[in-house]
Amino acid sequence: MKILSILAFTSLLFSGRSCNQNASQQKPGNMNDTVKNEYYTFELSNKVTRQKVIFRNRYGIMLTGDLYLPKEQGNESLPALAISGPFGAVKEQSSGLYADQMAQRGFAALAFDPSYTGESGGEPRAVASPDINTEDFSAAVDFLGLQKNIDRNKIGIIGICGFAGFALNAATIDKRVKAVAATSMYDMTRVMSKGYNDAVTPAERTKTLEQLGEQRWKDAEAGTFAAGAILNPEKLKGDEPQFVKEYHDYYRTPRGFHERSLNSTGAWNATNALSFMNMPILTYIKEISPRPMLLIAGEKAHSRYFSEDVYKMAAEPKELMIIPNAVHVDLYDKVDVIPFDKLETFFKEHLK
């Protein structure tokens, strides 16, 4: 299978147009959004309640999330999970589905939109940051630990796709996190700086950075931020790599489409890759130990190697679970493929 190089990957972020307001740069929604804006890609379980919540991260950005709670809670404080991802998705997609499933299993689960995306705050829109997106997880832990019905000593996190890498980074530095799970993991700093399978040459990296520098001049002169190319166009040409077709099948079809999701309708800012090019986030992965780590990847996922490499790097206790025949996006929404029973067992064992 043909794998994109860093230049091709970065072009998805870079080769766009200048505009002040487009699908990727909309203002965050508010609590009175229309029914259309409140669309979720999954059905809420009748065993679970869902409540919109707002909390602030360490950089002063207001984050919006959905707090899922089991209807039958009992009198004991609940163990809790903070959940986000994939990279470019919103809480009405995969993270919300995960939260709904885990709440059915007795957890308080907070699915949240990261900074600068979805209904969360931050300007300009449609940017990401290894530092700020890691902080978003810790801010979610702050929120959960302040709730009277949650045991702050029993909080774990789940990251999906690119936010799996941020979840691992957050667990490394935030010792309040008692256990961490990562599904269909991407290390966004690695793939943006080195390309898929680390195939980028020094000359290619230099060329990419030169292009990003030129784009900064254009943005500075225009007084605005150009958007990169649409992440998932409405129609494919047909000659794309298989995993690109799989992304399209999720984000651009009723299966996973959401109008606030960058992956469904928009693009990152053209210079979004800059902060990822020089900042490896998993340098201290061994420091998650002695807290447990669960890595879940599809057998046929193009991203599988990220999880396998992290497993080799990490210290015990750790576990790598490979799901037979599954591709990357299968772990976004296929409840018969995602090992929710394993996630339940893992967190119930370690959040105690």
Question: Your description of this structure?
Answer:
This protein is α/β, with parallel strands linked by helices and 352 residues long. It has one domain (6-350): Rossmann fold. 33% of the residues lie in helices and 16% in strands. The protein has helices at 6-14, 94-104, 130-145, 162-173, 188-194, 202-222, 242-251, 262-265, 304-313, 330-333, 340-350, and strands spanning 48-56, 62-70, 78-84, 108-112, 150-160, 180-183, 293-298, 318-323. Strands 1-2-4-3-5-6-7-8 form an eight-stranded mixed sheet, with helices on both faces. Helix 1 (6-14) packs parallel to helix 6 and helix 3 (130-145) crosses helix 4 (162-173). It starts with 5 loop residues before the first helix and ends with a helix. The relative contact order is 0.18.
The main sheet comes to: 8 strands, mixed
Radius of gyration: 19 Å
> Which parts are unreliable, with pLDDT below 50 for 5 consecutive residues or more?
1-37
Strand content: 15-25%
**Can you tell me the number of structural domains?**
1
Order of SSEs: HEEEHEHEHEHHHHEHEHH
Number of continuous helical runs: 11
Which CATH top level class fits?
A: Alpha Beta
CATH superfamily: Alpha/Beta hydrolase fold, catalytic domain
Termini gap: 44 Å
Give the strand tally.
8
And the CATH topology? Rossmann fold
Q: From the coordinates shown, what is the CATH architecture?
A: 3-Layer(aba) Sandwich
Net shape? globular
What is the strand arrangement across the widest sheet?
A: 1-2-4-3-5-6-7-8
| Relative helix content | 25-40%
Task: Tell me the structural class.
Answer: alpha/beta
